[in-house]
Design brief:
Elements: H1 4-10, H2 24-53, H3 58-77, H4 84-102, E1 109-112, E2 115-121, E3 124-126, H5 128-146, H6 154-173, H7 178-194, H8 199-219, H9 221-231, H10 242-254, H11 279-312, H12 316-340, H13 358-375, H14 382-390
Antiparallel strand pairs: 1-2, 2-3
Length: 391
């Protein structure tokens, strides 16, 4: 009697679709979001940069360099066949673990606000945990593909995936960067869902994750204080709740159509982190609900295109990789919007492609380059097939 593996191996391989042009609507949307981010970064950061550095364009000039590098990486990776990442999954995983360890080494890791999240090499500073998100997606995609016949088993399918997550999460907790661990956990859950893990196993992981999350939260008072200040911000309006309250003031000032570009009052040193984690609040104040809606609509369209790419990819590794990349993108957008609107407690996560932060911008653009490459090998619809032939 044939085993399931033998039956699987006897199935005729489906021919791979011919390479075609990448998803141009997705590319244009991502580029538009990034350029919009540069405009809003300049508006949000000019007064602070002029006050602190004597150069109102300090943040913009630095971000432009990272934007150029990120765009080059996006275009380059859009031409590198995505299947190579399955072979590179282990070296990339080991490499990012080494980088995370180096953040904890004095003299190499940079300590800022009681956290060691950055590495400084030759004057170049970057945050390895930003790479960890997408390396995790690549590693899980490769692992799930190799275990496709046992993913229904908790021990053989789920546990190995959790063992991939554990070292990354553990090293990032030591930095500490609990919000990034949450992103990694949610990304892993998304990958297990895409990998076909049983719902009972996923629910068990949710329960265990919540228990571990509460334990980690209450091990450190500053984490539990964030929950307290989120639940009752009026109790400490000039202390722990200051940022959240100032963010809501900015959004309230914006109304429907905003105060106008460059006319935010909260960016005049009232709202901390105005150029990165809370840039959406400045967008809301200057461009109003309409401006925020248009940005979210652009994000939604990009996510839709990413999901479409994943669904149309015949290769299992490509489907998982595309789904994982767009899942991380969507999760971080939701987390940032939730923080700015006080829907969830404050965390330190950027708004993808918009917030100030060179590593975040470059890594997200590079990841989107991988997604664009996957789109080159998807099945095209009859309508798009004719257009592709004409091109």
């Amino acid at each position: 009697m044939e085993t399931a593996a033998e039956t699987e191996n006897k199935k005729p391989a489906r021919p791979e679709p011919e390479r075609h042009h990448f998803d141009f609507p997705l590319f244009v949307t991502l580029l538009a979001i990034a350029v919009f981010g540069l405009v809003m970064l300049f508006s949000a950061s000019y007064y602070y940069a002029q006050t602190k550095y004597g150069d109102g364009m300090y943040f913009l000039k630095r971000q432009l360099v990272f934007f150029a590098v990120g765009l080059a990486a996006m275009l380059l990776l859009s031409n590198v066949k995505y299947k190579i990442y399955r072979k590179l999954a282990l070296p990339m995983y080991i490499g990012v673990c080494v980088l995370l360890i180096l953040t904890l080494v004095p003299g190499i890791g940079v300590k800022l606000n009681e956290a060691r999240r950055w590495i400084n090499i030759g004057g170049f500073q970057f945050q390895p945990s930003e790479f960890a998100k997408f390396v995790l997606v690549i590693a899980l995609s490769a692992a799930i593909c190799s275990k496709r016949l046992v993913m229904q088993s908790f021990v053989q399918g789920v546990v190995p995936c959790l063992l991939i997550l554990a070292p990354l999460a553990g090293l990032i907790v030591l930095q500490p960067n609990f919000s990034m661990v949450i992103i990694l956990g949610l990304a892993t859950y998304a990958m297990l869902y895409l990998g076909g893990v049983r719902i009972s196993h996923r629910m068990l992981l949710v329960v265990v994750g919540l228990i571990l999350g509460f334990l980690v939260l209450y091990l450190k008072s500053y984490r539990s204080n964030r929950i307290t200040s989120w639940l009752n911000p009026e109790a400490d309006p000039t202390g722990k709740s200051y940022q959240a309250i100032q963010s809501r003031i900015a959004l309230g000032n914006g109304g429907l159509f905003g105060q106008g570009l460059n006319y935010s009052r909260q960016k005049l040193l009232f709202l901390p982190e105005r150029e990165n984690d809370y840039i959406l609040a400045i967008i809301g104040e200057e461009l109003g609900f309409f401006g925020c809606f248009m940005l979210i609509a652009a994000y939604a369209f990009a996510i839709y295109r990413g999901i479409t790419i994943a669904l149309r990819c015949r290769d299992r590794f490509g489907r998982l990789l595309a789904g994982g990349i767009i899942a991380v993108f969507a999760i971080q957008i939701i987390v940032n919007i939730g923080v700015v609107t006080s829907a969830i407690p404050s965390t330190g996560q950027t708004l993808p492609l918009v917030s100030y932060g060179g590593t975040s911008l470059m890594v997200f653009m590079a990841a989107m380059g991988i997604l664009l490459n996957i789109s080159r090998y998807t099945e095209v619809t009859t309508r798009n097939a004719g257009r592709t032939e004409q091109q």
